[in-house]
Design goal:
Layout lengths: L9 E4 L4 E8 L2 E4 L9 E2 L1 E4 L5 E3 L1 H9 L4 E3 L10 E3 L4 E3 H20 L5 E6 L5 H13 L3 E7 H11 L5 E9 L4 E9 L2 E10 L4 H16 L6 H17 L5 E6 L9 E6 H7 L1 H17 L9 E5 L6 H11 L12 H13 L9 E5 L4 E9 L2 E11 L4 E2 L1 E7 L8 E8 L9 E9 L10 E7 L5 E7 L5 E5 L9 H13 L8 H16 L2 H20 L2 H22 L2
Parallel strand pairs: 1-10, 10-11, 12-17, 14-18
Antiparallel strand pairs: 1-2, 2-3, 2-4, 5-6, 5-7, 8-9, 12-13, 13-14, 15-16, 18-21, 19-20, 19-23, 22-25, 23-24, 25-26, 26-27
Helix pairs in contact: 1-12, 2-3, 3-11, 4-10, 5-6, 8-9, 12-13, 12-14, 13-14
Length: 572
């Protein structure tokens, strides 16, 4: 009896705007297409009027026609309590991300022809403990074992390093995605990719550039959008402007009418005007880049290559900002949207010990400082809530560090070791990760000393071990299990809930996506163009009713061509 082929470990870029899945084939990373034949799957979830859950392009098309039943950009809320109600009860970012991961898993299985169980998933370098645990939980709900959680700039560096194993150079990866920004300083020496410093902001991305245009338009209008649907259509128009301004000095697009308008109106923006609105965002980006250089003790002139990745990195203003800091034009050799997923596939192959990448090694660092809350005597009083770092940001991982502490006064029988993550002097300004409860023996302060050990692994997961020195008794806590809302029970219930959902069949997604895109286009048009699109929709519905595969394919192609034609005309 033959043994069924073992599926490779796949690499997944779980993005704010788009997600991708890739695998190493014959020594090279290859992107896996979805049901539409596209490699980019929009990170969007929507519920149709029939109660079916849509993921990807079909869901994205509904973001303007049914925004109240559509969730997008939820990656920014990973590790938080934010919830959406889009038609199948309250769900959080973990559950929504699990739906996206399930779609990617189905695409990989259709492409590879075998079940997929393991994945390397990328996260922003500046994702903290809560967000990383949330990402792992989303994978579990989707039926995936997250073999590794890897930082997005590190993944991009791996994709670059795969083709530059013989060079020796120091590189900066600038990653501006839809919702997050990271910058990483690294060095490549004979196939070894060594991460030296990283910095970032998980609340800074391409969405903020769109929002700046949106806010300016609303302020200029003097009136807020009348409905959620109008606001969604206006935001989509602003996004079209941002994309167009990446290649043009000026762009014009159609926008929803204001009260009293007879029809759709035009929005025109010059690149210079937009970039003036974006100056505060670009200043934040420049400050983060300089911080990474300081942490790595690297001067801008020592950087041989500047890599731009992430879909939003196509904006010329980002390239100019990088040029101003480093004195050289950035390298755009890696496909901005694809670099992270390609690198994730390389990391997956490393994890699987693929011979084709045996000579490639990558190291990573802790992006945050981690420590505990302490008190300090000041005269006869104590100042509490002070941050005592144990493992500093920039430490090469995996790493283990230990520090010794004493209780405030003799006679204490219990200590609560409070664990934090962040860079501020006061614990209240850092992220609380949890507590470790430690029983103390009787004795003097010195006899009640404890050693606190932090161990941080390659997945960015923290384990804390507290040992009472006098007795050797140890209390351990794995902080990837810390949050009550990410327990095994939560994961199992989320799995059962997802299994009950009416998810649109993958094989029918091209038809559903075509219809949703056509409906969104129809909503934007007026007059003869709208009527023409309506006729094409009717012809496609008729073909679906007849259930003749060739007729359906022909009608769908014709409908998509018509929608593409009018979509191009919306922005000039």
């Amino acid at each position: 009896m033959s043994t069924p082929p073992r599926a490779p470990i796949v690499g997944i870029d779980l993005g704010t705007t788009n997600s991708l899945v890739a695998v190493l084939v014959d020594g090279a990373p290859r992107l896996i297409p979805n049901a539409l034949g596209e490699v980019l799957t929009p990170s969007v979830v929507s519920v149709g009027p029939d109660g079916e859950v849509l993921v990807g392009a079909a869901a994205l098309a509904r973001a303007t026609t049914a925004p109240e039943r559509t969730a997008r950009s939820f990656k920014r809320a990973m590790g938080t309590d934010r919830a959406w109600d889009i038609g199948f009860g309250s769900v959080n970012a973990v559950q929504l991300s699990a739906l996206v991961l399930s779609a990617l898993k189905a695409d990989a299985e259709a492409y590879l022809g075998v079940p997929v169980r393991e994945a390397v998933i990328t996260v922003p370098a500046y994702f903290g403990e809560h967000q990383r645990r949330a990402t792992r939980a989303a994978a579990e709900i989707a039926g995936l074992e997250a073999e590794r959680i890897i930082n997005e700039p590190t993944a991009a560096a791996l994709a670059y390093g795969l083709h530059a194993r013989d060079v020796e150079r120091r590189v900066v990866v600038i990653d501006l995605g839809g919702g997050t920004f990271d910058v990483t300083v690294l060095e490549i020496i004979e196939g070894i990719v060594e991460i030296q410093a990283t910095a970032g902001d998980v609340q800074l991305g391409g969405d903020d550039f769109v929002e700046a245009i949106f806010a300016a338009v609303v302020a200029d209008d003097g009136v807020a959008p009348a409905t959620e649907e109008v606001a969604a259509r206006l935001r989509e128009a602003c996004q079209r402007l941002v994309r167009a301004l990446s290649t043009a000095e000026q762009a014009t697009t159609t926008a929803p009418p204001l009260p009293g308008d007879a029809g759709a109106r035009s929005l025109t923006f010059a690149r210079e005007t937009a970039e003036a609105l974006w100056e505060p965002l670009l200043a934040r980006i420049a400050a983060i880049i300089r911080r990474a250089l300081r942490d790595g003790a690297v001067l801008p002139g020592a950087i041989a290559e500047v890599l731009l990745v992430g879909g939003a990195s196509r904006m010329p203003c980002l390239a100019r900002t990088a040029h101003a800091i480093f004195g050289k034009a950035p390298n755009a050799a890696l496909p901005p949207d694809e670099a992270v997923a390609l690198g994730a596939a390389v990391q997956a192959a490393l994890k699987a010990r693929d011979a084709s990448v045996a000579d490639l090694v990558v190291t990573d660092i802790a992006p945050f400082t981690m420590g505990i809350a302490t008190s300090l005597r000041q005269g006869a009083a104590y100042v509490s809530g002070l941050y005592s770092p144990i493992l500093q940001r920039g430490t090469t991982i995996p790493a283990s560090r230990v520090e010794r502490y004493l209780p405030i006064a003799p006679g204490q029988r219990r200590l609560f070791v409070e664990v934090f993550q962040g860079e501020n002097a006061l614990c209240q300004d850092n992220a609380a990760l949890g507590k470790v409860d430690v029983a103390l023996p009787r004795g003097t302060v010195e006899e009640q000393a404890i050693d606190v050990r932090f161990t941080y692994d390659l997945n960015g997961i923290l384990d804390v071990e507290v040992t009472v020195v006098a007795t050797g008794k140890t209390v351990s806590r794995a902080f990837h299990e810390a949050r009550s809302d990410l327990t095994p029970g939560f994961v199992e219930e989320a799995r059962r809930r997802m299994a009950r959902l009416k998810v649109h069949p993958r094989e029918h997604l091209p038809n559903r996506a075509a219809l949703e895109r056509a409906n969104a286009c129809y909503a934007e048009l007026l007059g003869d163009p709208r009527d023409f699109v309506g006729v094409q929709i009717a012809a496609f519905l008729h073909a679906l009713d007849r259930q003749e595969p060739d007729d359906i394919t022909e009608a769908r192609t014709r409908l998509n061509d018509v929608v593409d034609y009018f979509a191009r005309g919306l922005t000039t």
